[in-house]
Specification:
The structure holds two protein chains of two kinds. Chain A contains three helices and five strands; from the N terminus they run βαααββββ. By secondary structure, chain A is an alpha+beta fold. The chains are: A alpha+beta, B alpha+beta.
Chain lengths: 151, 191
């Protein structure tokens, strides 16, 4: 396949209230939990050892916070384009992501503004599961590309 | 001053055990910047993106990156976790890297387990392959709390990540619930 073209969301085209394209991963197998623990060098036993997680009072092994942040960063960057940068991502983790869950990252634009010459877009963001139960939720600010264009 | 009481959990994390009053005296403390043991490299970036299944070409292609304002490949924020100490095994003769322990464990409190609850990450400039990363921390807050897993305190620490040029690239404020194992109602039964 050819290299993807550089694409950027234009500030002028962003509408308050619009939902950005969602991204789903799952169902998450035990193998994926082990791979993610390895790929993040996060060997906290609650992320890969079922007996340990349950002894902590949790229902099963649970996904780490860095993975959740990575998913938020992925959904924001996929929408905003290659020359944008997620300036701030803030979220609270509620229910744990456990084995066999399918997780979807979503976002809705709540505002847009120009500050200090930067084109900023604010969003509500959240992760939900296959049953629509929210896992984590929060907010984000993305700096769109200057003039909405490539280099 | 007496030596702190230390407890090690099954994951190998070492906690300084003390009272809430002792812990509150630490609020506001800042640590000196410490260079992380590993610089950012392409393998870190690809390995991290693989775990997220992130096809963003900025993480996979130098050629693509050159067509953007970044001028080359950049790293997703989370790659900073890969520049820190790796805990699984190292030869005994190897000199340990500089201390990278965090206030989450070193502040004296009753809790001997951790569970992350809140994150706020700010990115000011991307990290790139070859960047050496320097981390410092500030202990922001300690708040008593009870959750289903146990009784303890929410501890908020802000970490600052600078590259070798001294540029502030990322701040990472996270709140972790540090609780005493065995004091919780349990996730299921509290239903």
């Amino acid at each position: 396949m050819p290299l993807p073209a550089v694409r950027d969301t234009r500030y002028e085209d962003v509408k308050v209230g619009e939902e950005i394209p969602s991204i789903s991963i799952g169902p998450l197998s035990h193998t994926q939990f082990l791979f993610i623990a390895s790929s993040h060098h996060d060997w906290y036993p609650g992320h890969h050892d079922v007996e340990y997680a349950r002894a902590q009072g949790l229902p099963d092994i649970f996904m780490n916070a860095t993975w959740q942040h990575g998913l938020f960063q992925r959904v924001l960057c996929a929408w905003a384009g290659a020359n944008a940068i997620p300036r701030r991502i803030k979220y609270r983790m509620g229910r744990p992501v456990v084995r066999y869950d399918t997780v979807t990252a979503r976002g809705v634009v709540t505002g847009k503004r120009i500050e200090g010459g930067e084109h900023l877009v604010d969003l509500d963001i959240w992760l939900d599961k296959q049953d629509a139960e929210k896992v984590s939720s929060g907010s984000a600010t993305v700096v769109l590309a200057p003039h909405g264009g490539a280099k | 001053m007496s030596e702190p009481v230390l407890e090690t959990d099954p994951a190998g994390y070492v906690y300084s055990i003390g009272t809430e009053a002792e812990g509150l005296q630490w609020v506001g403390r800042e640590s000196e910047p410490v260079e992380q043991p590993y610089p950012v490299d392409v393998e870190h970036i690809e390995h991290f993106a693989e775990g997220i299944q992130d096809p963003n070409p900025l993480y996979w292609s130098e050629e693509f990156g050159r067509q953007t304002r970044w001028g080359g490949r950049i790293a997703p924020w989370g790659v900073i976790v890969l520049t820190g100490e790796h805990r699984v095994w190292r030869p005994e003769w190897l000199v340990k890297p500089a201390e990278t322990t965090t206030f989450f464990m070193t502040v004296p409190l009753p809790g001997n387990r951790l569970l992350a609850t809140d994150y706020e990450i700010e990115c000011f400039a991307p990290l790139r392959p070859g960047d050496r990363v320097f981390k410092s921390e500030k202990l922001v807050a300690i708040v008593p709390k009870t959750f289903r897993v146990g009784v303890g305190h929410q501890v908020t620490v802000k970490a600052y990540f600078r590259n070798h040029k001294g540029e502030l690239c990322i701040t990472d404020s996270r709140t972790v619930f540090r609780y005493k194992f065995g004091t919780g109602a349990g996730y299921q039964s509290a239903g």
